[in-house]
Each structure stands twice: as structure tokens, then as C-alpha cells.
Amino acid sequence: MSAALRILIVLAAIMGGDGVILAAAGAHLADASRLAAASSMLLFHASAVLATAALLARGTVHARIGLAAGSGFVVAASLFAGDLTLRQFASHGLFPMAAPTGGTLLIASWLALAVAAAWPNRAQ
User: Fold this and answer.
1) Which residues contact residue 54 at a Cβ distance below 8 angstroms, ignoring those fewer than 6 apart?
2) Total count of domains within the chain
3) Residue 96: is it exposed, middle or buried by C-beta count within 10 angstroms (0-12/13-18/19+)?
4) CA separation (Å) from 108 to 2, 16, 24, 117?
5) Which of 15, 67, 74, 87 could disulfide-link to 46, CB 3.0 to 4.6 Å?
6) Residue 108 maps to a domain
7) Model confidence over 46-57: pLDDT tens digits?
8) DSSP at 13
């Protein structure tokens, strides 16, 4: 397994753990709807990163495009969740439009995964 796949798996595990932490925090705080959304984005996309890594390891998807999609999931979900979490706890976001940027990048990453599945690897 390549180092890039190992890194994706480690990042997915961190995303999953952070998603559980945010869900737990949200369950104990009043008006924590932002944390619920942040938790969901991290948990859903941690699974997407793991699935993408598995597809890459099996050679099912185009390697470079698939790696870009998996990396995009990590960056985008982190932007989205990080912005919402900061807004909850610090009353300000990462930067203007961070959450929408993360959301847009998530959409692009899903589309990239579709392209990676449709575009055959040269080795096949």
C-alpha cells in the first residue's frame, strides 16, 4: 500500500474520531445545530475517504483522479466542519465563505470520484 493511501486512511480515522467528539459535544450543549452538521460532514466523508482508499488500493478507479477526490474529501470536510465548529465555540469562522467553499469542494470531490471510476487506468 502506498504512503498516500496510508495517509488518507489516517486522515479518515481522525475525521471519524473528530466527528464522534463533535456529536458528543453537540448532545451536551444547548443550540448546537452547527456541531451536528459539522459532525455529520466529518463522519459521512470519513467513510467516503475510506471507500476511496479501498477503490484506489484495488485499482478500481483512476489513481491520480481518485487520490485527488479522496484528498478533496479530507480538505473540504475539514473546512466545512472547522468553520462551523469555530462559529459555535469562538463566534467567528475560519475565513469568509469557508463552509460554502468546503461544501462546493465536497461536490467537486464527489464528481471527481465519478470521473475516476469512469476513466480507466492506463495499466488496465
Assistant:
1) none
2) 1
3) exposed
4) 24, 21, 29, 14
5) 15
6) yes
7) 999 999 999 999
8) H
Rounded Cα–Cα distance for residues 20 and 107 (Å): 23
Residue 21 resides in a domain: yes
Domain that holds residue 87: 3-118
Residue 40 · residue 19 · CB < 8 Å? yes
| Length of the chain in terms of residues written | 124
Here the cell at position 101 is 467553499
Q: Which three cell numbers stand for residue 53?
A: 482508499
pLDDT per residue as tens digits for the range 15-62:
999 999 999 999 998 888 899 999 999 999 999 999 999 999 999 999
Nearest to 45 by CA among 25, 82, 72: 72
Q: Are 103 and 76 in contact (CB under 8 A)?
A: yes
The answer to the question of residue 10 being in a domain is yes
* C-alpha span between 119 and 24 (Å, rounded): 40
